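Following up on my earlier thread - several people asked me to post the actual chain instead of describing it. Fair enough. Here it is, all 272 residues.
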Amino acid sequence: MVTKKWVKRAWIGLIILLLYVGVYLFLYVGKDEQINRYRSTSLPDTFRYTYSHSLEELTIQTPQAGSLNALLFKAPHAKGVVCFWKGNGGTLANWGAIAPTFLQFNYDVLITDYRQHGKSKGAISLKNFYSDAQTVYDSLSHRYPPDKIVICGYSLGGRVAAHLAASNRPKFTILIDPASAGGDFSDRFTDLVYCPLPSVNGFTFHTEEDVQKAPRPVVIISTDNVHSTAYKLKSYLHTKDQFVALAGATHETILMHPQSQQLLKRLFINLD
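Reply from S.P.:
Thanks for posting it. Predicted structure:
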Protein backbone atom coordinates (compact mmCIF):
# COMPACT_ATOMS: atom_id res chain seq x y z
CA MET A 1 0.00 0.00 0.00
CA VAL A 2 1.32 3.42 -1.02
CA THR A 3 1.93 5.57 2.03
CA LYS A 4 1.67 9.32 2.30
CA LYS A 5 5.41 9.37 2.82
CA TRP A 6 6.05 7.82 -0.62
CA VAL A 7 3.51 10.12 -2.29
CA LYS A 8 5.27 13.11 -0.78
CA ARG A 9 8.65 11.83 -2.03
CA ALA A 10 7.22 11.27 -5.50
CA TRP A 11 5.90 14.85 -5.64
CA ILE A 12 9.25 16.23 -4.46
CA GLY A 13 11.06 14.15 -7.08
CA LEU A 14 8.67 15.35 -9.80
CA ILE A 15 9.15 18.98 -8.79
CA ILE A 16 12.96 18.57 -8.84
CA LEU A 17 12.77 16.93 -12.28
CA LEU A 18 10.57 19.70 -13.65
CA LEU A 19 12.90 22.35 -12.24
CA TYR A 20 15.88 20.55 -13.78
CA VAL A 21 14.22 20.30 -17.19
CA GLY A 22 13.08 23.93 -16.97
CA VAL A 23 16.56 25.21 -16.15
CA TYR A 24 18.08 23.01 -18.85
CA LEU A 25 15.66 24.26 -21.50
CA PHE A 26 16.26 27.85 -20.44
CA LEU A 27 20.02 27.46 -20.79
CA TYR A 28 19.77 25.43 -23.99
CA VAL A 29 17.56 27.97 -25.73
CA GLY A 30 19.88 30.76 -24.66
CA LYS A 31 23.14 28.94 -25.37
CA ASP A 32 23.89 31.13 -28.38
CA GLU A 33 24.33 34.02 -25.95
CA GLN A 34 27.66 32.42 -25.04
CA ILE A 35 28.91 33.95 -28.27
CA ASN A 36 28.96 37.33 -26.52
CA ARG A 37 31.97 36.13 -24.52
CA TYR A 38 33.96 35.89 -27.75
CA ARG A 39 33.10 39.27 -29.28
CA SER A 40 35.43 42.24 -29.10
CA THR A 41 35.67 45.84 -30.27
CA SER A 42 34.88 46.47 -33.94
CA LEU A 43 37.06 48.63 -36.17
CA PRO A 44 35.88 50.38 -39.36
CA ASP A 45 37.18 48.95 -42.63
CA THR A 46 38.93 52.27 -43.22
CA PHE A 47 40.97 52.00 -40.00
CA ARG A 48 44.70 52.30 -40.60
CA TYR A 49 47.28 50.66 -38.36
CA THR A 50 50.18 52.91 -37.35
CA TYR A 51 52.93 50.53 -36.27
CA SER A 52 56.49 51.55 -37.06
CA HIS A 53 57.56 48.10 -38.23
CA SER A 54 57.22 46.94 -41.83
CA LEU A 55 53.94 45.11 -42.25
CA GLU A 56 51.40 43.82 -44.75
CA GLU A 57 47.69 43.97 -43.99
CA LEU A 58 45.84 40.87 -45.17
CA THR A 59 42.21 39.90 -45.61
CA ILE A 60 41.82 36.13 -45.46
CA GLN A 61 38.56 34.55 -46.62
CA THR A 62 37.66 31.46 -44.63
CA PRO A 63 34.92 28.77 -44.70
CA GLN A 64 31.41 29.53 -43.40
CA ALA A 65 31.57 33.10 -44.76
CA GLY A 66 34.42 34.27 -42.58
CA SER A 67 36.57 37.29 -43.42
CA LEU A 68 39.63 37.70 -41.20
CA ASN A 69 41.83 40.75 -40.89
CA ALA A 70 45.50 39.96 -40.23
CA LEU A 71 48.80 41.78 -40.00
CA LEU A 72 52.03 40.19 -41.26
CA PHE A 73 54.95 41.98 -39.61
CA LYS A 74 58.19 41.51 -41.53
CA ALA A 75 61.71 41.09 -40.20
CA PRO A 76 64.59 42.44 -42.34
CA HIS A 77 66.12 38.98 -42.87
CA ALA A 78 63.38 36.56 -41.88
CA LYS A 79 64.35 33.03 -40.89
CA GLY A 80 60.71 31.97 -40.62
CA VAL A 81 57.37 33.12 -39.27
CA VAL A 82 55.45 33.02 -35.98
CA CYS A 83 51.74 32.33 -36.38
CA PHE A 84 50.53 34.15 -33.26
CA TRP A 85 47.03 33.74 -31.79
CA LYS A 86 45.99 36.49 -29.43
CA GLY A 87 43.83 36.50 -26.33
CA ASN A 88 40.10 37.13 -26.39
CA GLY A 89 40.09 40.87 -25.73
CA GLY A 90 41.34 43.72 -27.86
CA THR A 91 42.08 43.90 -31.59
CA LEU A 92 45.04 44.19 -33.92
CA ALA A 93 45.08 47.89 -33.05
CA ASN A 94 46.76 46.95 -29.76
CA TRP A 95 47.88 43.33 -30.24
CA GLY A 96 50.34 44.35 -32.93
CA ALA A 97 52.53 45.55 -30.07
CA ILE A 98 53.52 41.91 -29.45
CA ALA A 99 55.28 41.67 -32.83
CA PRO A 100 58.71 43.01 -31.72
CA THR A 101 58.93 40.11 -29.25
CA PHE A 102 59.52 37.80 -32.23
CA LEU A 103 60.86 40.25 -34.82
CA GLN A 104 64.00 40.58 -32.69
CA PHE A 105 64.76 36.95 -33.49
CA ASN A 106 64.42 37.67 -37.23
CA TYR A 107 61.06 35.95 -37.50
CA ASP A 108 58.10 37.44 -39.32
CA VAL A 109 54.92 37.56 -37.22
CA LEU A 110 51.34 36.99 -38.38
CA ILE A 111 48.62 38.16 -35.96
CA THR A 112 44.96 37.62 -36.81
CA ASP A 113 41.76 39.07 -35.39
CA TYR A 114 39.06 36.48 -34.70
CA ARG A 115 35.58 36.92 -36.15
CA GLN A 116 33.80 40.00 -34.79
CA HIS A 117 37.13 41.36 -33.54
CA GLY A 118 38.41 44.50 -35.24
CA LYS A 119 37.74 44.33 -38.98
CA SER A 120 37.11 40.57 -39.02
CA LYS A 121 33.60 39.37 -39.82
CA GLY A 122 31.46 36.25 -39.68
CA ALA A 123 29.55 34.03 -37.29
CA ILE A 124 31.32 32.87 -34.14
CA SER A 125 31.44 29.18 -33.24
CA LEU A 126 33.95 26.64 -31.98
CA LYS A 127 34.02 25.03 -35.42
CA ASN A 128 34.80 28.39 -37.00
CA PHE A 129 37.60 29.09 -34.52
CA TYR A 130 39.27 25.88 -35.62
CA SER A 131 38.58 26.02 -39.36
CA ASP A 132 39.57 29.70 -39.56
CA ALA A 133 42.86 28.96 -37.82
CA GLN A 134 43.61 26.17 -40.28
CA THR A 135 42.87 28.43 -43.23
CA VAL A 136 45.23 31.07 -41.85
CA TYR A 137 47.92 28.45 -41.27
CA ASP A 138 47.45 27.10 -44.79
CA SER A 139 47.92 30.61 -46.19
CA LEU A 140 51.26 30.78 -44.38
CA SER A 141 52.33 27.38 -45.70
CA HIS A 142 52.27 28.87 -49.21
CA ARG A 143 54.87 31.43 -48.13
CA TYR A 144 57.01 29.44 -45.67
CA PRO A 145 58.02 25.75 -45.40
CA PRO A 146 56.57 23.92 -42.36
CA ASP A 147 59.94 23.75 -40.59
CA LYS A 148 60.06 27.57 -40.69
CA ILE A 149 56.65 28.06 -39.03
CA VAL A 150 56.29 28.45 -35.26
CA ILE A 151 52.79 28.44 -33.75
CA CYS A 152 52.25 30.53 -30.62
CA GLY A 153 49.09 31.32 -28.67
CA TYR A 154 48.21 33.14 -25.48
CA SER A 155 45.09 32.55 -23.34
CA LEU A 156 42.21 31.78 -25.75
CA GLY A 157 44.82 31.85 -28.50
CA GLY A 158 46.59 29.01 -26.73
CA ARG A 159 43.50 26.88 -27.27
CA VAL A 160 43.45 27.70 -30.96
CA ALA A 161 47.20 27.15 -31.28
CA ALA A 162 46.98 23.75 -29.59
CA HIS A 163 44.36 22.59 -32.07
CA LEU A 164 46.55 23.71 -34.96
CA ALA A 165 49.49 21.87 -33.45
CA ALA A 166 47.47 18.65 -33.38
CA SER A 167 46.77 18.75 -37.12
CA ASN A 168 49.98 20.19 -38.58
CA ARG A 169 53.74 19.88 -38.41
CA PRO A 170 55.20 23.28 -37.46
CA LYS A 171 58.74 23.69 -36.14
CA PHE A 172 57.22 23.76 -32.65
CA THR A 173 54.27 25.26 -30.77
CA ILE A 174 54.30 27.60 -27.77
CA LEU A 175 51.23 27.75 -25.53
CA ILE A 176 51.31 30.66 -23.07
CA ASP A 177 48.84 30.06 -20.22
CA PRO A 178 46.11 28.69 -22.53
CA ALA A 179 42.55 29.21 -21.29
CA SER A 180 39.06 29.63 -22.73
CA ALA A 181 37.11 32.84 -22.32
CA GLY A 182 34.58 31.44 -19.89
CA GLY A 183 36.97 29.35 -17.89
CA ASP A 184 37.19 25.58 -17.89
CA PHE A 185 35.42 25.09 -14.59
CA SER A 186 32.18 26.80 -15.60
CA ASP A 187 32.12 25.18 -19.04
CA ARG A 188 32.85 21.64 -17.92
CA PHE A 189 30.71 21.87 -14.81
CA THR A 190 27.65 22.58 -16.93
CA ASP A 191 28.56 19.68 -19.19
CA LEU A 192 28.62 17.36 -16.17
CA VAL A 193 25.40 18.73 -14.70
CA TYR A 194 23.40 18.18 -17.87
CA CYS A 195 24.91 14.88 -18.95
CA PRO A 196 23.54 12.75 -20.65
CA LEU A 197 21.43 15.50 -22.26
CA PRO A 198 23.08 17.51 -25.08
CA SER A 199 25.62 20.04 -23.85
CA VAL A 200 24.47 23.62 -23.33
CA ASN A 201 28.06 24.74 -23.82
CA GLY A 202 29.19 25.15 -27.40
CA PHE A 203 32.74 26.23 -26.58
CA THR A 204 34.48 23.39 -24.79
CA PHE A 205 38.07 23.41 -26.05
CA HIS A 206 39.59 19.93 -25.64
CA THR A 207 43.16 21.13 -25.38
CA GLU A 208 44.29 18.06 -23.44
CA GLU A 209 43.54 15.89 -26.46
CA ASP A 210 45.17 18.38 -28.82
CA VAL A 211 48.53 18.48 -27.01
CA GLN A 212 48.57 14.70 -26.89
CA LYS A 213 48.03 14.49 -30.65
CA ALA A 214 50.62 17.12 -31.59
CA PRO A 215 53.28 15.41 -33.74
CA ARG A 216 55.84 18.19 -33.20
CA PRO A 217 57.22 19.63 -29.91
CA VAL A 218 54.93 21.68 -27.67
CA VAL A 219 56.20 24.16 -25.08
CA ILE A 220 53.79 25.24 -22.35
CA ILE A 221 54.50 28.35 -20.30
CA SER A 222 52.26 28.38 -17.22
CA THR A 223 51.81 30.24 -13.98
CA ASP A 224 52.65 28.26 -10.84
CA ASN A 225 48.92 27.86 -10.08
CA VAL A 226 48.52 24.07 -9.99
CA HIS A 227 44.77 24.42 -10.55
CA SER A 228 45.07 26.37 -13.80
CA THR A 229 44.26 24.90 -17.19
CA ALA A 230 47.83 25.29 -18.39
CA TYR A 231 49.36 23.61 -15.34
CA LYS A 232 47.05 20.61 -15.68
CA LEU A 233 48.24 20.11 -19.26
CA LYS A 234 51.64 19.07 -17.90
CA SER A 235 50.47 15.49 -17.38
CA TYR A 236 49.43 15.18 -21.04
CA LEU A 237 52.78 16.11 -22.56
CA HIS A 238 55.25 13.76 -24.23
CA THR A 239 59.01 13.53 -23.73
CA LYS A 240 59.57 15.78 -26.77
CA ASP A 241 57.59 18.57 -25.09
CA GLN A 242 58.50 21.12 -22.42
CA PHE A 243 56.63 22.57 -19.46
CA VAL A 244 57.74 25.70 -17.58
CA ALA A 245 55.88 27.19 -14.60
CA LEU A 246 56.84 30.78 -13.79
CA ALA A 247 56.77 31.66 -10.10
CA GLY A 248 55.02 34.96 -9.45
CA ALA A 249 53.53 35.29 -12.93
CA THR A 250 49.78 35.77 -13.34
CA HIS A 251 47.56 35.20 -16.35
CA GLU A 252 47.59 38.95 -16.98
CA THR A 253 51.38 39.39 -16.66
CA ILE A 254 52.77 36.13 -18.05
CA LEU A 255 52.87 37.18 -21.71
CA MET A 256 55.38 39.98 -21.12
CA HIS A 257 56.92 38.54 -17.95
CA PRO A 258 60.76 38.78 -17.98
CA GLN A 259 61.07 35.01 -17.52
CA SER A 260 58.75 34.42 -20.50
CA GLN A 261 60.92 36.72 -22.61
CA GLN A 262 64.08 34.89 -21.53
CA LEU A 263 62.51 31.53 -22.33
CA LEU A 264 61.43 32.69 -25.78
CA LYS A 265 64.95 33.96 -26.44
CA ARG A 266 66.43 30.56 -25.58
CA LEU A 267 63.89 28.75 -27.74
CA PHE A 268 64.53 30.89 -30.81
CA ILE A 269 68.30 30.95 -30.38
CA ASN A 270 68.24 27.14 -30.36
CA LEU A 271 66.53 27.23 -33.75
CA ASP A 272 69.65 28.71 -35.36
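The longest helix spans residues 4-29. That should answer part of your original question.
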